[in-house]
Every structure is written in structure tokens, then in C-alpha cells.
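Before relying on records like the one below, remember that each one covers exactly one chain. Contacts with other chains, cofactors or solvent are not represented anywhere in the record.
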Amino acid sequence: MDTTAPLPPAADDPTLFADAARAILDPSGLGPIDRVPLISEAARRRHRVFVPADHRFKAAARFMQALWREDRGLAIGTHIDRREPHRPRRLGSRISTAAGALGSNFLHTDIVPVVTRALAYREPGAAYDVDRLRTNLLSSQPLAFNLFGPLARDLALATRFVAELMPGTLTLVTDILFEHSPGRCDPRYTADRTAYDVVLRGRDATGARAILCIEIKYSEAGHEPAPPPHPRYTEIARTTPGLFVSPDDPTLTGPACQQLYRQHCLASAMLTAGLADKATLAFIAPPSDPVAARAHEPIHRATHHAHRLSTPRRFDRGWQTTGCQLRDGVPSGKPTRKGSVAIECFVTPNL
């Protein structure tokens, strides 16, 4: 993958770039659509992706993943329902184990060595589901590598990427870690297995050691159930000035908030342990999925503190790699992999 090409110079008139992007992403000139298509049950069944529990975004994403797989001639994979483990089901949003072993779930062959290295040198207790990583087209685990794998191979590119996407966080990226925790079950931190999908380490403009901790959602709801948090969280929340508006607010440990609550506490513990001078937490989710994109809102309300945490910022980035065709009445493509893509990134800076 060629990542050495210089970034284009800044345009005197930024509308030129916007017009060029619209010409590529919206050739009809009808304007953007702020929602995914509603896919009929018949079309979903035809492509073996009908899952009754799927909400609108997840159904559309699963459907488009199946089209992406079919376009590339990848063998269909299977899904095993925990309630019926002896009846595997062919599912269009999965690729076969053989295709997964070849790295077909990743955008470019250059990403495969990054994944292989991360798995071989995974941290003790790291929560990798290798089958899901290699064969599930609808998972945020491969998405993390598809987004940040190329950057892990080229830290100069990573530095440029962060400078554009999240200015003011890192001016130099020195390391990228996947599924990272400084110490699972270590009482110096959160005494459990809380971790980040991706962590970028480096320096900020002042030369201070900085970390950018990232949580990624694709089709996950962000409201996953979890056991009651370890008492260490209460200690961190109460003793870190300004971390939370009300450290004892039960909302923080509820299903809508608990994951980002734990990650805020972990970042605070990492700073207290001297692992960095500054921490920034980022939450990345597709804005067309209202369930995932709004998962940050409860923690934002709970952490909003004028002199500590600023309002989350939104960054939209879109790119196009191939033409988009219509199949079954909807655009053919793979969300976050092919066609027009927008990623919403909400940042809690400078803990």
C-alpha cells in the first residue's frame, strides 16, 4: 500500500474540494440522504441475511456486506446460534473460514501482517474473538484493523492522519496498540479487563506524552450488559477532580453508559500511574446508525465539565474507491469499506 504520497495542498477556496467530493459521491445531484435504505425482507432472505432482530441500519449494513462478499466471489460463512449450537446457519454477512484465513476480511493485504502480529503478541487476557475477527464482515474488530492497520505500518502517515482528524491531540504518533490495557485485573488501574480497541501513543505540541484512546462501534448497540463495576471505579471517579459531574450518578454504571464510564476511569488511572501526561478519548461510530452514534450521549452529559472536558466534536470523513451500482434497488457497496463513508468521532479531550 503506497502511503508515501504527500497530502494535497490546502485549497484557497475549500468549496472546491467539497464540490469535487459531491461530484464523485453524489453524481445524480439530488443531494445526500441522511439514512440507510430500508431493505425488504424478501431481498434480505434472497441474499441469506435476514435476521429478525436487526434494526434498520444493521439490516442494511448486513445486506450490503453480503453484496460486497458476492461481488468478490468469497464463499459464504456460517453463524452458530448459542441457543442452537448444533444447527449452524449460512449467513451472507460472513465469509468462510478458508477465506478468513487468507485475510479476506481486511481491505488490503498490507493489513494482514498487522493483524497477525497483533494476535501473536496479544496482551495477556486480550478479548480477541479470532473467528469473528477473520470471518464476520459486520464486526467492529476487523473494522479497527481496517481503519488503523495501515497507520500502524506507517507512523508518519498516522501522525498526518491524527493531525487532520483530531487536531490538538497528538503532533507525533510513536506507537499504535490494538485491544490495549496497561494491565488487566491490575488494581493500579481498574482491576478488571477493561480495554480500548485502539490506543495511539506519542507527543503533543508541547512535547508532553499523550495517548489517544479509541472505542469503535459498527453495528453494535453500545448498550451491552456488564456485571457491576469493580469498587475501584468508585474510588477513581470520586478521587479524580472534575472527571464526572456527579461521580455517584447511577447513570454512569447503567447499560447505556457503563463501557465509556469504565474507559474514562481507566484513562484517569493511566495518568495517575504516570503512563502519560495527557489522555484523549475518542468514540467512533457510523452516523447513519442512530443507536451506535448516540451511545456517547449519556457519558457526555455525565462528564461535561467546563474547565475539564469540552464539548465533543464531530468529524465527518468520506471517501470513494469504486463506482456504486444498484442491486435489488439499493446502492451496492460495503459500509465503511466501499463507497461513500462517513465516520462520526466524538472526542473527550485533555483528561
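Residues 181 and 195 are 5 Å apart (CA to CA).
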